[in-house]
Amino acid sequence: MSSARAVVVGASHAGAQLVTSLRQEGWSGEIVLVGDESVLPYQRPPLSKAYLAGKCSLTELAIRSQDFYLKQGIECLDACVEEIDRSARQVLLSTGDRLSYDALALCTGARPRRLRAAGTQLDGVHYLRRSSDVQRIREDAIPGRRAVIVGGGYIGLETAASLRALGLDVTVLEAADRVLERVTAPEVSAFFTRVHQHEGVDVRTSASVEALVGDHRVREAVLASGELMAADLVIIGVGIEPTTELAEAAGLAVDDGILIDAHARSNDPTIVAAGDCASQDMPRYGRRIRLESVPSAVEQAKVAAATICGTDKEVTALPWFWSDQYDLKLQIAGLNTGYDDIVLSGDPTADRDFTCYYLRKGELIAADCVNRPRDFMTTKRMLGQGTAVDMAALTAEVAV
Amino acid sequence: MAVVTFVSHDGEKHEAPLEEGCSLMQVATNNAIPGIDGDCGGEAACGTCHVIVDPAWADKVGPSGPVEEEMLSMNPERQATSRLSCQIKASESWDGLTVQLPEFQM
Predict the structure, then answer these.
(1) Strand duo A146-150 + A169-173: pairing
(2) Which of A17, A93, B46, B93 is the most exposed place for a label (fewest CB within 10 A)?
(3) What residue ranges carry the coiled-coil annotation (chain B) (predicted)?
(4) What is the sign of the dihedral through the CA atoms of A160, A162, A163 and A169?
């Protein structure tokens, strides 16, 4: 065993993959994974779904078992990293210890964007990012209570679906004029609005929250229109911000994420980064992008581990995403940024399964697939391999 | 202890203990089996845990479900006994189970 030490900051999806990939790439030295959640790295996507619904335990969500880390000689440390001393190649821990590193990986993730409104400190007001957040939401999620969800993005809508299943009255407040405005076509937004309304969710668009009010505990939300909305609990899902303070304080280049090249290297060659905290040069798109997705975090972590071990790898995989709401499995292949046209397969105004293909200058760039795993896999494979796509054939086949 | 063998595309064998109730994908990731990614954590959403069950075991392990079937249908390495290992609940009575891994996960 070599005496070199790799330190991975953040027991996230990226962190868990990075330590695994280090061993698979042949790192024989020490590996220390530092996390501040007091639990082994766990799957985050089910937090707003199965975990909120009480259908699984945190142990079941562990990305890898305790046994795995023991067998692989990976030390999991429960601490915060307070500071990176790049010249001494050390990290300073909240325990007061200093840990020297030969290679450092930052997988610090992201935190929920705070709602700019009064009253967010009241009891019954929640953000949703960590398992501890969901444990608190679960205590509040009593059937018959009125839940107000601020933000009609994926987290908001997934939470709405889970809370409906638990028997709460649910209202979703979205400031834009449609849900999922930032990420999908209007037709897809209309589909999700229809489904949520059908499931009994009150979906309000162009509705921004001015304040949350209550004595000790939240009682109502005050909308910009002046309307008052009764609320026993409020869940805020208005996006996330990359956790980059540590990198910034250490003088690494940061611009909406730690800047990394296609090999996941920061501007310090001994430091790599991966996951929601990183903004990466993506050869596929010819620009820098910060992705908020598990597959991307995993992909970047594999590349980062290879870079640490001196193997030449780049992120080449197609970005993809998924979201589960009710009986709907939404799978998204590719990024639709800059699309100028869509082609629908199926009828989102009537069905519960359809695909929305996104085109730019006649070329397929992405697809939102609802309950259409076959369309998703086809699109993911073709876009991933850069195969030319015959749209007529694609939509004709799925229309059968 | 019941053992499952994962055989890589180029014939390399990796053994792992079968844990009752765990998915075969979890068994693989908990034992750092190369070639099984399981990016989505077991929701049949990504198709990166594809295995080809030894035909002698196909009846015991069972067939794929409808979503799984659609996920596998476009896979060029798909075979008659292909499964997504996240959808296989392992049983300790399956000692000696062998599954092949494809050359590429999707």
Answers:
(1) parallel
(2) B93
(3) none
(4) positive
Are A231 and A212 in contact by the 8 Å Cβ rule? The answer is yes
Last-in-domain residue among A193, A221, A236: A236
Chain A nearest-CA distance from B105, in A, is 11
Residue-range definition of the domain harbouring residue A227: 125-236
Question: Of A45, A68, A329, which has the smallest distance from its Cβ to B32's Cβ?
Answer: A68
- Name the pairing type of β-strands B98-100 and B50-53: antiparallel
The shortest CB-CB distance from A374 to any of B29, B30, B70 is to B70
Read off the pLDDT of residues A179-206 as tens digits, 9 standing for 90 and up: 999 999 999 999 999 999 999 999 999 9
Asked whether B18 and B64 are in contact (CB, 8 A), the reply is: no
* Tokens matching residue A289: 């992008």
| Total number of domains constituting chain B | 1
Residue A392 domain-assigned (yes or no): yes
Question: Which tokens in the block code for residue B87?
Answer: 């959808």
* Chain centroid to CA A176: 21
The domain that contains B24 carries what CATH number?
Answer: 3.10.20.30
Chain A residue numbers with beta carbons less than 8 Å from the beta carbon of B29 are 20, 63-64, 68
Query: What's the CA gap between A184 and A205, in Å, rounded?
Result: 15
Q: Do B41 and A380 touch (CB under 8 A)?
A: no
pTM over 0.90? The answer is yes
What ipTM was reported for this prediction? Answer: 0.90
- Give the CATH number, domain containing residue A151: 3.50.50.60
Q: How many domains does chain A have?
A: 3
Give the tens place of pLDDT for each residue, A240-294.
Answer: 999 999 999 999 999 999 999 999 999 999 999 999 999 998 888 989 999 999 9
Question: Are residue A35 and residue A11 in the same domain, yes or no?
Answer: yes
Q: What are phi and psi for residue A34, nearest 5 degrees?
A: -105, 125
Relative to beta strand A202-204, strand A169-173 is parallel
Query: In angstroms, what CA-CA distances link B65 with A45, A77, B70, B79?
Result: 22, 40, 9, 15
